[in-house]
Each structure stands twice: as C-alpha cells, then as structure tokens.
Amino acid sequence: MIRFDDVTKTYMRGQHPAVENLDIEFTRGEFVFLVGASGSGKSTLMRMVLKEVAPTRGTVYVAGKDLSRIPSWKVPALRRDIGMVFQDFRLLPSKTAYQNIEFALAVIGTPRKVVRRLVPEMLEMVGLEDKGKRLPHELSGGEQQRVAIARAYVNRPSILLADEPTGNLDPATAEGILDLLAEINERGTTVVMATHDRAAVDRMRRRVVEMVGGKVVRDEERGGYETPAPVSVISGNLPDDSTHREEHPLDDEELVADWDGAPESPAAERESSEEHAGPAGADRSVEVDGPDAAEAGTGPSAEDRPVAQDVLEEDLIDEREARRVRESEDFTGDFDQDQEELR
C-alpha cells in the first residue's frame, strides 16, 4: 500500500536529512503507530505520502504507483484516496459540522443526492448526528476532532494519515478517538498515526515504528511505546540531543548489537552493495525545478518564500537549523571580506 525505497529527504543543502535511507512498507489494512521525538521525521514521511514534498533521493510508492511519475495535475486525484487528520483539526470556522464534511465532497463534484446521504451517515458514525448544525467553536475539542475524522473519511479513502490526532485531547476523549480510528481500520482502511501518546500505543498494541534522526530504529509488531533498544530517544535510552546523535551515529554496529531485538540498520544492510557501487562520496543529489527546487536548496532561500500554513513541526525545526547555519556562513564571509580590504 505504501512503500519507501531508499528514500532520503533534505530540505536544504548542507543540513541533516529530515528522512535518511528510509526502507519501509505499510501493507493494506494495517494500523501503524509512528513514534519518535519531535524532529525525527514522522511528519516528513507523511508529507511525502501526500506528495506535498518530493524525496531528494529514492522512490515513494502509494497504492502501487511511483509518486515521482505522477504529474502535478493528477495529484488531487491521488489525494482523494488519502485522508488526513491533524492535531489542530483545521476545520473551516465559518461552516457547521455538516458543512465541513459536505465541503470535502463538494470539491470533487459529488452529486448533491449522494452528499445528502453520506454526510448524515458520517455524522452518525462519529457520534455527532445531533450536532451537525453547530459551528466548530460550539463543539468541544474531541467533537471537533471527530468532525475532522469524518471529513477525512467521507470519501472512503484506502489510506488515513493521522498526525497527533489525540495531542490536544484529555485521556478519556483521546480513547474515544482511538476507538473511532480502529473502527475505520476494521473497515479496511490503512491507518498510519504519528503520535507521542504513550497510553494510546500501549493500549492498542499494534505495529510500532520508531524514528530517530530521520531513520527507523525500531519496527515492532504489537509493540509498546517504550523499548529497551539503546537507540530509542522516547524511552530515554538516547538523549534527545542532535549533537549527541552526531557523536553516536545510529548505524553504529556495536550500539545496535547491544540489543538482541534491534533491527539491522539500513546502512549496514547496504554496506556490501555500496562497496561495488563506486566511491562513498559520489554525488547522488537530484536537480529539482519548480516549487520543489526551494525544498532541495536550489531555489529561493527560506526568507524569500512564504511559509505554508500546513508546515509541520519537523519542517519548522529543519528551517530554524538551516537558518542558523546560513547566518553563520554569512557572518564568516563578511569577516573574510573585511580582512581582505584591510590588507
């Protein structure tokens, strides 16, 4: 259903990849938790599935289709088969719960007769059949999230992506949202949920994929939130500190070997093939034109382009780090120029 084939995503040249050498597959009908500290690459993974960003290297497949071969005018059709649920709900504030769900159908030209049938069905499924006429501000946080889920699922997508859907909710309400997502999964939809909700992961006991520094360090069936793996940040086994991670790289064979259940690192799996593929430093970057050029570092700087409203947490972290590096380089360049003029 979703497959990443040696995927690396670097937003700006010279900075650490948001996702690096990613090889993973989510099969049809799975329920998968993506866990990891902020900045670990979870949201970047989801944005690549939606084709909001393109990988710098590697290939992403969704429903058997190579996303790099899908032209921009076909992207809306692709996204009709992918539902997206956000932590901050992103409902239209001037529209009622009914109208928010209706809007998702109207934009794809669904006949009015079908809309009148589907929207009440969705409101009933999420337990809000009597609150369709209420505006978002008249609903509780849990009710707003239910509307957001109904809007994402009303087209019966084969894939549902959820980015921290329980992050702003109390435990009891979060449990209800999880039950709703589990029900959607039981109807055949693949659910991929990025979360920091320890209770949710431990309660559901589904597949758990943990990311650290853009790499998958754990892929466990029926897993829990914490793990004895020494490469886990969320379990407190590795400090949530980029400097420490640079000093102790994730593909260190001795570190991984300390944990019997740790998966072999992607770098180790490719070691023998890279010995025959040419110099390790060979440039495998991709030249990008158009909107993706800015993301790859070949287009305008971050200051010259507007910040999209749907930029997620990992991207903001990447942007701040890139800006710090760029400002440091600018200062060094100006200092060298002044010294040359004095001489």
From TrEMBL:
GO molecular function, one term: ATP binding
InterPro entries, A to Z: AAA+_ATPase, ABC_transporter-like_ATP-bd, ABC_transporter-like_CS, ABC_transpr_LolD-like, Cell_div_FtsE, P-loop_NTPase
Cross-referenced PANTHER family: CELL DIVISION ATP-BINDING PROTEIN FTSE, IMPORT ATP-BINDING PROTEIN
Membrane topology: Peripheral membrane protein
Keywords attached to this entry: ATP-binding, Cell cycle, Cell division, Cell membrane, Membrane, Nucleotide-binding
Record-given protein name: Cell division ATP-binding protein FtsE
SMART domains xref list: AAA
Protein family membership: Belongs to the ABC transporter superfamily.
One Pfam family this sequence matches: ABC_tran
Cellular component, GO, one term: plasma membrane
Positions of region (Disordered): 219-343
SUPFAM superfamilies: P-loop containing nucleoside triphosphate hydrolases
Biased composition (Acidic residues): 330-343
Signal sequence residues: none
Compositionally biased region (Basic and acidic residues): 267-277, 319-329
Ranges where the ABC transporter domain occurs: 2-238
Domain of life: Bacteria
Subunit description: Homodimer. Forms a membrane-associated complex with FtsX.
Subcellular location as annotated: Cell membrane
Keyword Transcription listed: no
